[in-house]
Amino acid sequence: MTIYGVALLAFCFLVGKITGTLLGAAIGIDGDVGGVGFAMILLVAGNTWLKHRGGLPPATAGGILFWSAMYIPIIVAMAAVQNVKAALSGGWLALLAGTAATVAGLLLVPVLSRIGRPDLPQPRADD
Question: Which keywords are on file for this protein (predicted)?
């Protein structure tokens, strides 16, 4: 059943790559634009959809978890290297946009870390 996890991952990668390439062609760029992001969104959506429909046996879920744990860091690191090379050759606007997105992400970490965390107990008035 682990092979089904690999099949879902491969499907998401191919659809993401095709979508990114078509998006790049639509805006006049010779390359993949956001294919990795599309693939990760499809992987999360496909995994969630299968869980809700009951079509995800534990062995398949294990395969998806294993390969997604391997896939995401490697692909994101590869994409990050390509983005840095493109930004350095793209000029100041690309560097400014990348820096702004990074700073915004860092500033949102505390906000996002509070989501889903239970509220801390409030002290009583008589204490």
Answer: Membrane, Transmembrane, Transmembrane helix
